[in-house]
Amino acid sequence: MRRLGLTRPDLLGLLGVAVFAGTYPATRLAVGGGVDPLMNASVRILGAGVLAFVVLLVTRTPRPAWGMLPRFALAGAGVGIVFPLCLGFALQIVPASHGAVVMAALPLATTTYACLRGHAWPSGKFWLAGAAAALLVLAFSWRHATGTTEAGVGAADALLVLAMLGAAVGYVEGAKLTTPERPGWQVISWALVALLPFMGPVACWRLTTLTTEVTPVAWTALAYGTVFSMYLGFFPWYRAMQQAGVARISQWQYLQPFLAIAYAVVLLGERVDAVDLALVLAVVGAIAWGRRK
After folding, report:
1. d(C-alpha 58, C-alpha 186), whole Å
2. DSSP assignment, residue 182?
3. CA gyration radius, the chain
């Protein structure tokens, strides 16, 4: 791995990306099977929050200072409320693959927000490589964004922009809270617990007032979003960003749409071809070039 320039934080970041990429087809399967977007977002927080509370209780993790709880809540709100809620509404309109169209800019949005929050600005080479990778991902995504009306695209893309901003805020705020003494699993755990009093009652209300039948596949997809997308995926992700920096690790997000399509091939029956594979290799090349000193 050293010959490829991959460090331990890089591998942790790739693991996080692999987990988060499943969020797109999982959300599409959930909202298409009877789970409305509000239920999708609130139940994810309820389930992951209860799991996090149990983990914190079993490990006897010290509670952060009361003054820090709003920071945890902000990180949790970005990735736990804004992102899944907006993504759920968007994927009621467009296919899962279309979700990668706007999300192609997520690494740049994450890095920009990190810089505004006090991180050092990357070099011009980094931004050039990021722009090239974003354009390649956009080209890839548009090839798969089929079956959508023009009227729907505008509304869906606006929702995806909001989802992207929510994710960027949640990623950076969570990374800033992560330290060697407070690893990523503690950060996401406290972030979810801080949201339980607000989103727990919403989830209980939606679960007890269901008017449509939820399919077994939708329940399974919701379970994935709860356990993996909302909780376990942040263990390696926050740790990687804390160790190697937001700018470096966020670049791996350019691979996320490709992984999402790979999952969609299996779960949703989508197809890829030689052009798609060429675009994947080009994105990997742009990331490798941007990371070279």
Report:
1. 12
2. S
3. 18
